[in-house]
Amino acid sequence: MQSNIARSALTVAAFAACGLAQAQSSVTVYGIVSTDYVHATNTPTGKVNKIEPGRVNPARLGFKGSEDLGGGLSAVFNLESAIGPDTGAAGAPFWGRGANVGLSSSMLGTVTAGRHWNINDDMLGNFFVFGGFAVFNFTGFGFTSDLVNNSVKYVSPNLGGLTVEALVGAGEGSSTTPRTVEVGGVYAIGPVKAGLTYHEAKRVGLVNKLTSGGVAYSIGSVTVRGGYSSADNEYDDYSLVAGAYKAAAYDIGADFGFGPAAVSVDYVARDLKSSSNDSHFFRVLGKYNLSKRTQVNANVVAMKNKGTATESFYGLAAGAKSQNVFTLGLSHSF
Question: How many Å apart are CA 74 and CA 105, to the nearest integer?
């Protein structure tokens, strides 16, 4: 009798152990602490010299985790907050850089719900230079890298070099939060990478459409790339009237690696259709890794406006003015 009881207890313990082994979970705490020294000309208060949170590697604190549910399926989550090392302030909303939970399958892909970085942010960084001074600074092109509230996002597994994503943001009746739909894909084969994305958002009778794409070619430590984005802001009767506009933006750039150092050179332009009010900037970005986690970086950016264009990085108020920016930053990741 006692041996039967012992065998039963061992059987229950074995099943319990198998269940615990199957349901393995992990949580990772990660982040970046970064600051920049900034010098900028032609701001509303004249020249500016200040310390601000890093733009190349934005400061953040995040938690991400997964639980193995068996059969190649996992539960996943991500929470990420912006932080301001220059003042110690937290971002608003606190989890403003992402807050989502979902399921991930090694065969079928990942579906999450919450606040997400959009598909453009995932894909267009292959063709446009990002990191603070980029195409998303131009009016009408903020959605080349942005976050979407109340959204569901799907990311496919790698399908022979092709990755496909889709995102739907409900808007949930808000006059300021648009109903958003995005789809996109990136295909990589050998040294070539190409991608295409489409974004559409509707709010208060206004329809914002953004079609973007690019190509990149890598040879050793050198990558040559080009990105193009077309913005079409219309009223919901699809007529182009006062307050709406059509514009195009493009980035022609190259990245060079030199061991622990890297340099990116870019020409980024905005063309407002049927108008001479255009803008462009040149940017040189340098990075040097002091270690696996610590980096020094610097930007030299020269913005030029034509006609009555008022594009800027630091509050340029008047048209047809130039703005020059220099930054020197330090970042540490953990």
Answer: 6
The torsion defined by the Cα of 260, 122, 178 and 90, in degrees rounded to 10, comes to -40
Q: How distant, in Å, are the alpha carbons of 21, 55, 58, 334 from that of 261?
A: 43, 18, 19, 20
Pairwise pLDDT comparison (170 vs 65), residue with the higher score: 65
**192-221 burial string, b = 16+ CB within 10 Å, else e?**
ebbbebebbbebeeebbbbebbbebebeee
Amino acid identity, position 303: M
Question: What is the spatial distance between Cα 220 and Cα 229, in angstroms, rounded to a whole number?
Answer: 27
Contact 36, 325 (CB under 8 A): no
Query: Are 70 and 20 spatial neighbours (Cβ–Cβ below 8 Å)?
Result: no
Q: Which two tokens stand for residue 217?
A: 């070619």
Choice among 184-198, 212-226, 233-247 with the minimum mean pLDDT: 233-247
Give the Cα separation of 30 and 118 in Å (integer). 21
Helix (H) or strand (E) holding 219: strand 206-219
Alpha helices, DSSP H, located in 137-288: none
Q: Which residues pair with 59 in a beta bridge?
A: none
Inter-residue contact 225 to 216 (CB < 8 Å): yes
Backbone angles phi, psi at 3, to 5 degrees: -65, -35
Topology of domain 30-333, per CATH? Porin (2.40.160)
Phi/psi for 34 (5° steps) reads -145, 145
List, in order, residues 6 or more apart from 203 with CB less than 8 Å away.
171, 175, 176, 177, 178, 179
Q: Which residues contact 144 (CB under 8 A, 6 or more apart)?
A: 120, 121, 124, 128, 134, 135, 136, 210, 212, 229, 249
The yes-or-no verdict on residue 23 having pLDDT over 90 is: no
Residue 262's identity, in one-letter code, is A
Average pLDDT over residues 45-67: 95
